[in-house]
Amino acid sequence: MSEAPKPAAPKAAGRAGRNTELSEALKAYKGVWVFIEHDRGHVNPVSWELMGEARKLADKLQVDVAGVLMGGPDEPLDAYAAEAYAYGADRCYFVRDPVLKGYRNEPFTKGLTDLVNKHQPEIMLLGATTMGRDLAGSVATTLGTGLTADCTELNIDGRALAATRPTFGGSLLCTIMTLAYRPQMATIRPRVMQMPRRDASRTGDGVEMPLGMIETDVVTKLLDFIPDANRNTVNLAYADVIVTGGKGLKQPDNFKLIWDLARVLGAEVGGTRPVVQAGWIEADRQVGQTGKTVRPKLYIAAGVSGAIQHRVGMESSDVIVAINTDPNAPIFEFAHYGIVGNAMQVLPVLTEAFRTHLDKRIRKVA
Q1: Beta bridge partners of residue 270, listed in sequence order
Q2: Cα three-residue angle 138-139-143, rounded to 5 degrees
């Protein structure tokens, strides 16, 4: 795999001279790219979320937004490109090859690395999914550039990407910038960024690039695809309503109150990291920095203190309702509505109130 050209330091130059030459070399890198992740006929929605964020960054830098589409020649990449234009892309780069049918690290890394070396984007964004994390790390290592993982906020400082992410177990937020190398790379988890508005009237241009690789060049082989039997049982990231419980519920038996309310509301059930670690619910239901990032219309948190590790995973919810016995709990600082009280007493009352209200609405419609 070829490496990205590094800005050369001048011979016999002071620090000021080196900075000037580095700056000149970096000016060749322009544009914001989004790797469009797709699998078995479906684009991961995080790609469109990132396209909206890329549009904001590109407008500040006054550059174009491009999507990167890689796959087999029989995959509907052109249809995905049409969606990319609708969500904000000005251009799409295509790498089509039978070797790219189904994700494998080696050919995807080569294809994306070669694209970067030829067209030189200044920023590249990928979803912090299983595929995106695997690919981003390999591409950044091959290019010798910086990568900030699991970002919660992106901004522009001068021409540098200011990528913010939680650190020290979620207790602090840090902003990281890659100043001397390009592209600046970042991964962002699903639902951290808002889904942009779709504009079907937008169009863009496409650029094709060959992979330059044959099947015998790839060590790994795709033998079969076995779907996860439980893949549809938990859908926290895209749920409209979530009811979450924390250790304030005191004991696992009390978590039934969370399930009762969720069933009435047609909601998903979530939990904090301590609850998951205690074995009260499965890990797929953890909300927070080390769990899922969610953006529901309604988020009800019972017995949740509001530690930053949990907050970064749910604070973008449209409406947050918090129930806690401690009036000074951190969650009340960012909740839209707060109930100071015992969750074991409040939850049954809420459940019954919602059940009565919803029954009346159903009878009225009938």
Answers
A1: 244
A2: 120
Tens of pLDDT, residue by residue over 28-86, are 999 999 999 999 889 999 999 999 999 999 999 999 999 999 999 999 999 999 999 99
Structure tokens at 75: 């995959």
Sheet strands (E) in the chain:
32-35, 38-39, 42-43, 65-71, 91-96, 123-127, 147-151, 153-157, 160-167, 172-176, 184-188, 205-208, 241-245, 268-271, 298-302, 319-324, 337-340
Beta-strand relationship, 298-302 and 319-324: parallel
Flag whether the pTM goes above 0.70. Answer: yes
Here the tokens at position 112 are: 């994306």
CATH number of 25-217: 3.40.50.620
Among candidates 147, 117, 123, which has minimal Cα distance to 135?
A: 147
Sequence ranges of the chain with CATH classification 3.40.50.1220: 236-365
Report how far apart, in Å, the C-alpha atoms of 128 and of each of 92, 120, 186, 232 are.
21, 22, 9, 19
What is the dotted CATH code of the domain comprising 236-365?
3.40.50.1220
Residue 353 backbone phi and psi in degrees, to 5: -65, -45
Is the separation of the CB atoms in 236 and 242 below 8 Å?
A: yes
Instruction: Say whether 344 sits in a helix, a strand or coil.
Output: helix
